[in-house]
């Protein structure tokens, strides 16, 4: 009888070990999947097509240059600069383009608010299509917020990324890219729960500094 109990106990231990191994394997698999695809998921870059207007969001190097490239290529003859007073975006835009071709949006202080105010401008000017330009790593959040704001609209939006030094295929190899990746996912989660704007950004950057730079 005791030998039977011992055998049953041994079997249960073996089963627990197998279960732990399987759980560990699943965790490693999920972690590997996250490493490989987390950065790639953030990048949205669609083929540009002719549109009524180009929308460029402030906040990153290369965005205006990409928007200007699209303008020069004839994809649109008008450009909206969202949060255009930040980073001298408006001044830079009117040095490149005729002033009458540039429309200033000055109220937004978040990606979501950019979508809201740009939609109002597009409605006012009767624009029905737009090329949305921002940094490559920012584009998933841009598309998420603009899609929410325009969900009941028949406006055609195409998302075109400006290239940066961000490496979506090996983002974990650089502290800078790790910070960007974590930042974007936290912001996407925050946006889902209605957290936007400068206060949220300041809190986020405080957390990033604590975890990655101290």
Could you characterize the architecture of this molecule?
The chain crosses the membrane at residues 23-43. It comes from Bacillus salipaludis. The structure is a single chain. With 214 residues, this protein is an alpha/beta fold. It folds into two domains: 53-162, Rossmann fold, CATH 3.40.50.620; 171-213. It is built from seven helices and five strands. It has a five-stranded parallel sheet with strand order 3-2-1-4-5, with helices on both faces. Helix 4 crosses helix 5 (139-149) and helix 6 (175-192) packs antiparallel against helix 7 (197-213). It is elongated.
Offer a concise description of the structure.
The protein has 214 residues and is an alpha/beta fold.
